[in-house]
Amino acid sequence: MRNILIAAVAVSALAAPAFAQSTETQPRGYGSLGYTYLDDAYTGAVTGRLGVNLNRYLAVETEASVGVKDHDFTAGDAEGTLNHEWDAAGYVVGKYPVSDKLELFARGGYGHTELKTDIAGAESDVGSDSWNYGAGATYKVDGVNGVRADWTRRDFDGDNNELDSYSLSYIRSF
């Protein structure tokens, strides 16, 4: 996770010269807070994001989530629980403004998801790095507040496993 965060900060720092060249009047930074549901894992998390608009069509963002909804299951005769511990990722985001209020986006990046299983008292970590990609939309209620909905696929390294997540967030530009 530390390497992911360092890479995201490095990408943001390298993009700093683009801020001075931007002539747009919209705010350059944004943050969001919302709920993410992990399909197939049936878990949920609170997700926070911070991003920087490099220009009207390109941004970089980081996200981190902490699990808040576990999934109880039965494996044979044993009861078990799947816990979403945490995840973090960094993304490059391509944006397309449809109107002053509506913006579509696609994003791609790299992240890590950490899950934990507990079956009959025996715990094991189920965590992996993933290439992530997805799409969504942001609707701005006013100049700085809005709502964001997105879908992201996590394609885990070497596992041939994929996990879809769906997120709904409040977004604030600054």
Task: Describe the model.
This protein is mainly beta. 11% of the residues lie in helices and 68% in strands. It is built from 2 helices and 9 strands, in the order ααβββββββββ. The protein has helices at residues 2-14, 16-21; strands at 29-38, 43-53, 58-69, 71-75, 78-97, 102-119, 122-140, 145-156, 162-173. It has an 8-stranded antiparallel beta barrel. β2 and β3 (58-69) form a beta hairpin. The protein is elongated, with a radius of gyration of 18 Å. It starts with a helix and ends with a strand. Mean pLDDT is 86; it is low at 4-23.
- Average pLDDT across residues? 86
Strand percent estimate: over 45%
**SS-based structural class?**
mainly beta
State the low-pLDDT regions, or none: 4-23
SSE string, helix = H, strand = E?
HHEEEEEEEEE
What is the β-strand count? Answer: 9
The percentage helix is 10-25%
Cα-based radius of gyration, to the nearest Å? 18 Å
Query: What is the overall number of helices?
Result: 2
Which strands sit side by side, in order, in the main sheet? 1-2-3-5-6-7-8-9
Query: What would the principal axes of the Cα set say about the shape?
Result: elongated
Main sheet attributes: strand count, strand direction, barrel closure:
8 strands, antiparallel, barrel
Distance between the termini: 26 Å
